[in-house]
Specification:
Length: about 60
């Protein structure tokens, strides 16, 4: 591979990592569990990063005991 192909792959890998940050953050968070966590992950996948911002502001929706 030439240098431009390696650079393009590196840029794509960085973009993919940045895109995955919200998903990884939600998956390893202790704020929510179970179905609520799944709902947040699906919201981030289908609605976009705005859902991640809402997650950071609103999760957990229910109070802990």
């Amino acid at each position: 591979m030439d240098d431009s192909a390696v650079a393009a792959l590196l840029i794509l890998a960085i973009i993919a990592l940045i895109w995955l940050i919200p998903l990884i953050s939600i998956l390893f968070s202790r704020k929510t569990t179970g179905a609520e966590k799944l709902a947040w992950v699906l919201a981030v996948l289908f609605i976009s990063w705005f859902a991640w911002i809402f997650y950071l502001l609103l999760a957990p929706i229910k109070k802990k005991r």
